[in-house]
Amino acid sequence: MTKQAEGAAERPARRRGRRPADEVRADVFRVVGEVLLEEGIADLTFERVARLSGVSKTTLYKWWPSKGALALDGYFHAVEETLAFEDTGDIRADLTRQLLSFAHLMTRTPAGRVLTELIGQSQTDEDLATAFRSLYSSGRRRLAGERLLRAKEQGQIREDVDVQVLVDQLWGAVYHRLLIPDEPVTDEFVLALISHLFDGIAPRPGA
């Protein structure tokens, strides 16, 4: 959201009376998500979010202890639908679809830059680090783990496999390339991760 367009984007005068908290939060998430995905975290401030959302700074500070925590919450809601984990009954297809969606979001939209900025700031912002683990990383890990456990129950994954290790193998590899970009995150890379996971790397008999 460019600063030039902010005048038109400001919310109209509110009706009298207290609005439901969910409605207030939705306005904040909308504004924070737009600013982050268009500009990044540098120009995100409580003052700017208050002006664009029509929510007081007092309310913002009551709900979010730091700019980083506010940014993370807005980011999470902005990408939540895109990163939803489907269950079609085919774990390989579902992992492929989800990992490709994640890679596309991280490399073809501003979301990737925002996420790396949030990870960087979380190293010195304790509130953000706590929020990152509780709201984003642990939530993403839980969703993936639940899907993999269902696949194990259906006999699509061996009983002795630790599904949390699988999460680290797949998403950890993508995060590594995002944060240390010696090599790009491409569709070919994602498909190779899936292939190596399911097909293995040992030589095939007779090869």
Please describe what this structure looks like.
The chain is an all-alpha fold. Helix content is 67%, strand content 0%. The chain is built from 10 helices and no strands. The chain has helices at 6-9, 21-39, 46-53, 57-63, 67-79, 91-108, 111-121, 126-153, 163-179, 187-199. It starts with 5 loop residues before the first helix and ends in an 8-residue tail after the last helix. Residues 11-16 have low confidence and may be disordered. Keywords: DNA-binding, Transcription, Transcription regulation. Pfam families: TetR_C_11, TetR_N. This is TetR/AcrR family transcriptional regulator.
Separation of the first and last Cα atoms: 56 Å
- Give the overall average pLDDT: 88
Shape: elongated
- Which structural class matches the secondary elements? mainly alpha
What is the strand content?
A: under 5%
- The Cα radius of gyration reads 20 Å
Strand tally is 0
Question: Which residues form runs of ≥5 with pLDDT under 50?
Answer: 11-16
Helix content: 55-70%
| Largest sheet descriptor | none
- Helix-strand pattern, N to C? HHHHHHHHHH
- Count of alpha and pi helical runs: 10
Pfam families: TetR_C_11, TetR_N
Protein name: TetR/AcrR family transcriptional regulator
Keywords: DNA-binding, Transcription, Transcription regulation
InterPro entries: Homeodomain-like_sf, HTH-type_TetR-like_transc_reg, HTH_TetR, Tet_transcr_reg_TetR-rel_C_sf, TetR_C
